[in-house]
Amino acid sequence: MNKLKLRLQLEQFFMEDIGERDVTSELIFSENEKGKIVYIAKESGVFCGTEVIRTGFALLDEEVQIEMNVKDGDRIEKGQTIAVVQGTVWTLLKGERVTLNLIQRMSGIATQTAEALSLISHSTTRICDTRKTTPGLRMLEKYAVRVGGGFNHRFGLYDAVMIKDNHISFAGSIMNAVNNVRASLGHMVKVEVETETKEQVIEAIEAKADVIMFDNRTPAEIKEWIKLVPEGIVTEASGGIAMNNLADYGDTGVDYISLGFLTHSVQSLDISVKVTVN
Q1: Catalytic (active-site) positions
Q2: Separation of alpha carbons 168 and 159, rounded Å
Q3: Are strands 81-88 and 34-41 parallel, antiparallel or unpaired?
Q4: Pairing of strands 256-258, 234-238
Q5: Is the confidence at residue 130, as pLDDT, over 90?
Q6: If you ran DSSP here, which 8-state letter would residue 227 be given?
Q7: Which CATH architecture group holds 119-264?
Q8: Per-residue pLDDT tens for 51-98?
Q9: Are 175 and 199 spatial neighbours (Cβ–Cβ below 8 Å)?
Q10: Where does CATH 3.90.1170.20 sit in the chain?
């Protein structure tokens, strides 16, 4: 994770929440009053968000003391203490909601990714994410996928070529689209082509795509079409894949399965904060 970017993002998140000041806390407590908060798991799952807690509170007060009892990727159980943070009450109350919101979401993504992987553990297929992330949280959400054992697809429109149905329609064909890209593309960027028919798979192979995606295809169709794909071309399945049919797609022999639900509709892991005033 890019810690410089994390710091900048957390600054923005705190500014959104704190504004000019935490009027409630400042009217109830003195500036130097000390306290402690404890992050506790209210359900079992995979934890993610150590740097959010460390960097977040350090931004608010460099003298805050943080004790992490788990690390990213650890399995946590209901009732387990995740972290203890000590400092001024003002600092603790300014930082707890933003950090809690983030680690709950990140831990939910890591947990769901791990669950998805368990369903295809019998295969060599890898699970990866998509661009269906929360605006502003892509770095954190994709990091959480990695913590859960998954892999990242492209981060945005800038780091890989992905020729989708609309590109193909505008270009006239897969071959035209790929040739136009290859005419100017550097050698460090991969070219992926989205396919929906057997004919498109054959055309993508002839166009020498680096990656072929089988989009919204059944496991039976993928098993048949993947036989056409020569070694050296990476294959991916995407679209219409859920927990209840994931194992079937793991049996198709594809290299990757990309899952939008890892990030776009994930249930946050339930974590709470308990406060103690010294």
Answers
A1: 97, 132, 164, 194, 215
A2: 19
A3: antiparallel
A4: parallel
A5: yes
A6: G
A7: Alpha-Beta Barrel (3.20)
A8: 999 999 999 999 999 999 999 999 999 999 999 999 999 999 999 999
A9: no
A10: 3-116+266-277
